């Protein structure tokens, strides 16, 4: 859980984001059993979703500041995403070392999250896609808690989500032509 702790204790405060809650996605088979032993130390049968909300619309200039990520090497956040902005409310930089090796954690930073109706505890269960590393789509799950046109950032993303800013080292992975069928006018 060191990445979860990093996001909640260091990244969120640095980005002026309030931590709201953590939800869980449990991967199950078609018969309802967990895909792996829930106590497995090697690989987890669940993924976590960390929810946070931006505190305000003004973001400080952090182009040359560094995050202490307790790793061997600190990176200037500008190294990863130069001036990455999603509308007005979202942070613009991230420590590249904090992304290394992360495959089980996703973070959503909705600018206008409706905390009043948001369940503080949620466990989702679904059969994972047969495509390796394909995550469950979150826009429908989050829709009741977001404004009509939300400003959302998903970090550690593995897919593009329409209308959201998605950041991760494999965000375009499932956009490759191998995942689509080509149709011609004759088809």
Task: Write up what this structure looks like.
This protein has 187 residues and is mainly beta. The protein has one domain (2-179). Helices cover 9% and strands 18% of the residues. It contains 2 helices and 6 strands, in the order αββββαββ. A 6-stranded mixed beta sheet has the order 4-1-2-3-5-6. The protein is globular, with a radius of gyration of 17 Å. The N and C termini lie far apart (49 Å). The model is unreliable at 70-104 (pLDDT under 50). InterPro entries: MT-A70-like. Belongs to the MT-A70-like family.
Key phrases:
187 residues, mainly beta, 6-stranded mixed β-sheet, 9% helix, MT-A70-like, methyltransferase activity
What is the fold's blueprint, element by element?
Elements: H1 2-14, E1 17-27, E2 46-54, E3 105-108, E4 123-126, H2 139-142, E5 153-155, E6 165-167
Parallel strand pairs: 1-4, 2-3, 5-6
Antiparallel strand pairs: 1-2, 3-5
Short recap of the structure:
With 187 residues, the chain is mainly beta.
Terminal CA distance reads 49 Å
What is the C-alpha radius of gyration, as a whole number of Å? 17 Å
Binned, the helix content reads: under 10%
Summing up helix and strand content along with how strands pair, one would put the structural category as: mainly beta
Beta-strand percent range: 15-25%
Read across the widest sheet, the strand sequence of neighbours is 4-1-2-3-5-6
In one word, what is the shape?
Answer: globular
How would you sum up the major sheet? 6 strands, mixed
Count structural domains.
Answer: 1
- Oligomerization state: single chain
